[in-house]
C-alpha cells in the first residue's frame, strides 16, 4: 500500500472537527535527525553521534554485508513477534522514467519470490496466523519501503519460516513480465481509488509547498505512463540498484530473545549477494525563494496557488520553510525541540481561544515538521468562516505577530508545561504496555529522519531537566526562530471562482499586521473541590461476575457499573459510560440537533464550567471526554489514570446531572458542519460516510444527515430542547477497566454516578420501534457523487439477525464472511485487478433481534460494477452449493484464534465484549465460549449458514456512481430496471 502523503498533513483540506483546546497527543520524543557517525565511534549504530541515553532493551547489530538490525524482547501482546524490513528506497530514489517503481516493486515482492509461489503470499501468511492487511502489510513513502509482518503466537518453526520467506521476498523476488502484467491492474486500481479531489489537492500542495524539490513531483503512486511502460528489465534494474543489504534494516520486537532474533536474521540475510558500488541517494533539494519574491518579516513569500474546488470548504495554509539538515541528536537538541513545542502550544491555545469567542475563522493551528529529509517547516492552517478569507488570515497572523513581539507570561508557560508533562509521564508509566508492532514502527520512524530513540522514562527525565529553559525570554526566542526561513509558500482552497488570486495571497502573507494580544488567556486554576456535589452519595452493592476478576456494582438509582482491576496495565485506565436510547431517542425531524452533538455537546459545559473552564480544571491531568451515538445508547469515553479517575467520573456524571448550555459551541459546530457538508459528495467514500447508515436502516429519518437548510434552522435553544431530556435518560452503565483499585473506584462511583437522581426511561413507543432493514431486491439503490468519473462503489447486503440468543451463530458468520472475503479478494484483486481492496464484513447487533448483515464492498471503476455484483453472487451461490475446503477454513480460523488470544490479554477486550452486559447478563456466559464459537467449525456448518443467509432473493445492493452516469450507462442495470438516485 502507499502510505498517505503525510508531509504537511496539517495542510489537509478537511474542516477541523476537534473544537476543544489543544490536546497533547501521544507523548514521544520529537523526531530529531541524527548525525553521520564520527570515525572511530563504536557505539550502537543508531546512537552514533548522539548522547541520548540508549534504550537498553534494544540490541543493535550489523552483518558483514552491512545489513543492520535492531532486536528486542517484548511480551505485549504475549506470543507475538513483529518484524519490520525497511529498505531505504522510496519514490524520491526513482528517475523520471521510473516514477511509481518503488511502490510497484512493493506489490511485485508480495506477488512471487524464491519461497512463495505465484499469488500465494496471502494464503501463506494466513497459514502462519497473520491476517492480510493488518498483520501482513507494506507501505511505500517518498524515502523508504517498509514490509510489516506481525506474527501472533509465533513458534520457533513459524519464525524461521517467516524470516526465510522475507529473505526470499527481499533478495529474490520473481520480477517477470508475467507478474508485472498481473500486478499492473491492481496498482492502477489503487491509483484510481486514491484519485479525484484528494489526489488533485495532494498534487497541488506538493508542487507548491515543495517547489523545486524532488518531493514536489515524486508521489509514490507514480504515473500511468511510467507504470504501464514497466518491463522486467527496468524493474529488475531498480531492484538491483536499491535493494541492497547496506540499504536495509531489519527490526524485530516480540516474545523471544534478542539472541534468537539476531540468529534468524544472520541465518537468512547474511548471504545477500552484493554486486557493484552502492548508488548514492539523490539530492532531495532545498527550499529556495524565487527571484523577485515579495519580502516578508520571517521569509520571502514565494510560490502561492489558488485551487477552486466546489466540494471543499475554504482553507488557507502556508508554510515557512527551512532546509533540512542532519544534526546531532543530542539531549540539548531535543530539549530545544521541547521549547519549540511549548512555544507552539501557547500560540495554538490563543488561536483556539479567539475561535471560540467567535470571529473570522472556525479553526486555526500551527505545527512544525521535519518533512521527509526535505524541509524543516513551520506550517499554519486556517479555516475561514466565509468568503472573507483575508480577515481570517490577518486575524491569525495578528495572534502570531503578538507572540513574535512579546514574551508569554510565566503562567501561560506553566500551564502548557503541565499539559506536556502529564503526557510524558503517562507514556513513561505505560512503557511496559507498548505493543511490539508500535515499538518496531518507532524504530522505522527514527530511521526515516535519522534520529535515535529513547526509553519513555529517559524522555521524561530529559523534559524535567529542561525546566530551566522554560522561561519567557527563551520561549520568545524559540517562537521567533520557528517563523524564520528561506521562503514562505501557501495554498488557498475555495469553492468559489474569482475569490482570490496569487497576488492577493502574496499580499495577505507579506503585509504588516499589528499584534493581537486580546487572545492571551489569564490562567486561573480551578479545583474540583470547589465544584458542587452531584448529590447525596449512593451506596453501591458489589458482586463478582465470575469473569476475569470483573466486579459489578449496583446502585439504588439504577446505575450499574463494571470494574476490572488490572495489574499488568500500569498507568492506564479506560472509562466508558453508556446511557439512554441512542438513535431510538430521536424523532423524525431531529437530524440537525442530533448531528451537532458530536461537536457541541461536550463543549457546551457542565454546571458552573464552560469550555475554557473545563480546559483549565483538567490542566496537568490525564482526562478526556469523547462522545458518540450508537443505535441503542449514547457513549462517553475517556482514557485516564488512577489518580485522576475520581474527577473523570465526576465530569461524566456532572454532564448528566447538571448540563450547561453555552450557545457558542453549538454555533461553532453548526458552522463546521455547514462547511463540510458539500465535501461529502466529492467521492464515493464521502457519500457512504454521509448516507450509508440511513440507507442501511431503510431510510429511517433518524439516521439521515441534515441538509444545509436544516443546519441553518438549528438554534442553541433547539439543541437544548432535544438534548436536555436525553441526558436525564437511563439506563446508565459505567465501565472502568485498568490500573484501578476496586474499593477506591467503588467509592468514587458512589460520589458521582451513585449520586445521580433516578433516570427516566425511553418511551415504550420508541423502545419498541423496529430495526428497519431494506427489503431484498436486485435493483441497486443508487447514490451519486460528483468527483472523479472513474470512481464508484458497489455493495451487496445479505440480512442476518441480531440479539444475544444468536451470538454463537454471529461468530460462525464471521468465519463465513472471512472465507467470502478471501475469495472476493482473490477474484477481484488478484485475478481481475478490478478493485484494490474489496472486503466482506459481518455485523450482528446484540441490542436488537434483527439488523445484522453480511456486507460485500468494493471500490471500482463504474464499468466494473456488473463484474462485482456477478462475482459476489457467484461466490455466495458456490458457498451454498459446495462447502469451503478445510484449508480455506484453516486460513481463517487460525488468524481469528490468534487475534482473540492476543486481544484477551488486555482490558479493552473485556470492555468491548461486555458492553451492555449489566442489562443483558447473558453476555457474561457467552464470553466463555467466544474462542470456540469463533474458531471451531466444519465445512458443512459453513455451507448450512450460507444456505440460510446468502440467498440472492433476500439480498439488496447499493451503488455509488459519478453524477450523470446510470446503472444502464455502465452496463450494470438488472433486467427489471434500476432504482432512482436517492440523494
Can you describe this structure?
Belongs to the peptidase M16 family. It comes from Novosphingobium aquae. Residues 1-20 form the signal peptide. The chain has 983 residues and is α+β, with helices and mostly antiparallel strands. The protein folds into four domains: 54-269, Metalloenzyme, LuxS/M16 peptidase-like (Cytochrome Bc1 Complex, Chain A, domain 1, 2-Layer Sandwich); 301-519, Cytochrome Bc1 Complex, Chain A, domain 1, CATH 3.30.830; 528-767, Cytochrome Bc1 Complex, Chain A, domain 1, CATH 3.30.830.10; 781-962, 2-Layer Sandwich (Cytochrome Bc1 Complex, Chain A, domain 1), CATH 3.30.830. 38% of the residues lie in helices and 16% in strands. The protein has 31 helices and 23 strands. The two termini are 32 Å apart. The model is unreliable at 1-40 and 977-981 (pLDDT under 50).
Could you give the topology of this structure?
Layout: E1 59-62, E2 68-73, E3 81-87, H1 101-111, H2 121-127, E4 136-140, E5 145-151, H3 156-171, H4 177-193, H5 197-209, H6 224-228, H7 232-242, E6 248-254, H8 258-269, E7 301-308, E8 315-323, H9 331-356, E9 361-371, E10 375-384, H10 389-405, H11 410-429, H12 436-448, H13 456-465, H14 472-481, E11 487-494, H15 502-510, E12 540-544, E13 551-555, E14 560-565, E15 573-579, H16 591-600, H17 611-617, E16 626-629, E17 634-640, H18 645-657, H19 663-677, H20 684-696, H21 708-713, H22 716-726, E18 732-738, H23 742-751, H24 764-767, E19 781-785, E20 792-799, H25 807-831, E21 839-843, E22 853-860, H26 865-881, H27 886-903, H28 907-913, H29 922-928, H30 930-935, H31 939-949, E23 956-962
Parallel strand pairs: 2-6, 7-11, 14-18, 19-23
Antiparallel strand pairs: 1-2, 3-5, 3-6, 4-5, 8-10, 8-11, 9-10, 12-13, 13-14, 15-17, 15-18, 16-17, 20-22, 20-23, 21-22
Helix pairs in contact: 1-4, 3-8, 9-11, 9-14, 11-13, 16-19, 16-22, 18-23, 25-26, 26-31
Pfam families: Peptidase_M16 (PF00675), Peptidase_M16_C (PF05193)
Family: Belongs to the peptidase M16 family.
InterPro entries: Metalloenz_LuxS/M16, Pept_M16_N, Peptidase_M16, Peptidase_M16_C
